[in-house]
Amino acid sequence: MKRRNFIRTLAAAPGAFIGADAAAQTPSDARAFQLDLMTRMAEPVLVNMAKGQLKKTFQLEVSPTWDGRDKGVTYLECFGRLIAGVAPWLALPDDATPEGSSRKRLRELALQSYVHSVDPKSPDYLLWQGPGQTLVDSAYFTNALMRAPKALWEPLDATTKRRIVAEIKGLRRIEPPYINWLLFAAMNEAWLLSVGEEHDPMRMNGAIRKINEWYVGDGWIKDGEAFHFDYYGSYVMHPMLVEILEVAARHKAPFWNGKPDELLAQAVKRMQRYSEHLERFISPQGTWPPVGRSLTYRTAVFQPLALLAWRKQLPPSLPEGQVRAALDAAHRAIWTTPSNFTPDGYLTIGFMGHQPELGDWYSNNGSMYIASAGFLSLGLPATDSYWTAVAQDWTQKRAFGGEKFAKDYPVAY
Fold first, then answer.
1. ∠ CA 265-266-272 to the nearest 5 degrees?
2. Is 12 exposed, middle or buried (0-12, 13-18, 19+ CB in 10 A)?
3. pTM metric for this prediction
4. For residue 3, what is the DSSP state?
5. What is the per-residue pLDDT for 78?
6. 19 forms bridges with which residues in the sheet?
7. DSSP label of 292
8. How many angstroms separate the CA atoms of 74 and 78, rounded?
9. Which of 119, 157, 194, 388 stands 20 to 30 A from 9 (CA)?
10. What CA–CA distance (Å, rounded) separates 114 from 141?
11. In 27-132, which residue ranges form alpha helices assigned H by DSSP?
12. How many CB atoms lie within 10 A of CB 60?
């Protein structure tokens, strides 16, 4: 694929296409910008891991407040989080376009990366016997396989499949704390169920029940017993709950005194409501409130909007052209800063550029690859209405432009 230079061009003049000009960009501009950004993010990781050289080439960076855990978990974070966001695009069918050629190449690299990830003899064998953090990022690793089973799971050789299943089941040794981590254990069990393997209903169903107990209303979920005003509803709670329930409903999984299909419908509605808030957070310039933990995850904050767009489940209050324009502005607001990437092409710790001081005690540069979750809508082909619909101004742009915009009221579901 002939590489486009959108990111490099924009990096030379940060902010040049932010805010008022963003909605004026054509639909093809919006998709091309995200596609170039995603490819730039994925390229060094998949190229090197496919050769068993990720650990050799990916220079580690940890937060100044790093808690001392095994830094080797960084590589699992890097690959697992990246592939979870890229998976829907890799699942698109092959075609003769330059994008199709690039996708086929990166898919082949991703498959070879999965092989290295569980081969004990490979230099890029991941830290499956590591600390509790391994459970966290194994869930992104399996989430990708759930999002693109025909592209990423079915083509794998029998040995690699057997090794992946064994490593995932082996993580049952880790007892997750009663916070968002419950969903990581549940995601692994849901994936096992989805591929016909024995799964643990208690680890899956217990998480579903607990997350629903922590729902505080109007689309917001507590992370444990305390409410945190942050974006963990985006990073973990809403997307993982919905995708776990999708598997439970599809496979008619046992659920004592409950109906997964009804719980799924409820979870989707709650994620839609939460996404209405996310859309309203985006300013006319494409910025959003930098509040709470894990700000360095950058545009992963918009995973629910991107997931709903990909699944064609955006609520009527959020037209496709409006969401696309808002997310285009948000991506440009962050990613036009050159120091988001190292000279070798890997992500840095930061919110808008390299800002290691914003890292949390669990942050490393591999953690940053959760930002790929903002690209889920690339799982829709360029011909889809999401990409071709006329751009519309988003809520804040209308509000601060003196235009009519919808009132906002709480919901009871």
1. 90
2. exposed
3. 0.94
4. P
5. 98
6. none
7. S
8. 6
9. 388
10. 9
11. 27-50, 54-57, 73-90, 98-117
12. 14
